Amino acid sequence: MTQLNRIALLLTLTCTALFGAGCALVWSKTKDVTADPKFHVVYKPGQAYHTKAEGRLIQVSDRYELWSPALEAYYNAHKAYTSYFEYGKTIAMLPAGMLVRVDGLEHNYTVAIPPVPGDSQILRAYGTVTTATESWSRVRLPDDQGAAWRFVPGTGVMSFPKDARFFDDPE
């Protein structure tokens, strides 16, 4: 039995003893994959774009997200996916033509003891958004949630295309 299996068994037994049968320990994590070229499938670190339309900068908990008009329309049509945005707030409506630079890539994953089916792993890009007067870093960049996604080759990580209606071609 490996050390990891021993830890999993111990946590499972402890959880079952404390809370009864059916208990599971589940938490979500993220993994930075900026330096791994196999994840450079949609956004690539260092790329810069200008926006073609106005965007909304949202703050949800401790993070920023840039919403394109298409992403905002998608979220408005799929309320079940956006329940966690109830406490988010609009920081700014950003003008067309702003500069967006890709700084990093990461994906989420779920750790569960005992193993249970987890949620989807989705590749996300983060970057710096700059207008003529302000700048924000570590902003989640929009992708096209309504488009067909693909797995990053050799992984179980889903990748959506960038919103080509919102971003020009990379510089």
Provide a descriptive summary of the structure in words.
There is one protein chain. By secondary structure, the protein is α+β, with helices and mostly antiparallel strands. It has one domain (25-159). It is built from two helices and ten strands. Strands 1, 2, 3, 4, 5, 6, 7, 8, 9 and 10 form a ten-stranded mixed β-sheet that branches. A hairpin with a 7-residue loop joins strand 6 (99-113) and strand 7 (121-130). The longest helix is centred in the first third of the chain and has 17 residues, at 3-19. It is globular, with a radius of gyration of 19 Å. The chain starts with a helix and ends in a 12-residue tail after the last strand. 21% of the residues are buried.
Key terms:
single chain; 171 residues; alpha+beta; ten-stranded mixed β-sheet; 2 helices; 15% helix; globular
The number of distinct structural domains comes to 1
Oligomer: single chain
Structural class: alpha+beta
Profile the largest sheet: 10 strands, mixed
The radius of gyration computed from the alpha-carbon positions, rounded to a whole number of angstroms, is 19 Å
Specify the number of helices. Answer: 2
Write down the secondary-structure element order: HEEEEHEEEEEE
Query: On the 0-100 scale, what is the average pLDDT?
Result: 83
Whole-Å distance between the termini?
52 Å
Number of strands: 10
Q: Into which percent range does the helicity of residues fall?
A: 10-25%
Shape: globular
Strand content: 35-45%
Report the uncertain regions.
none
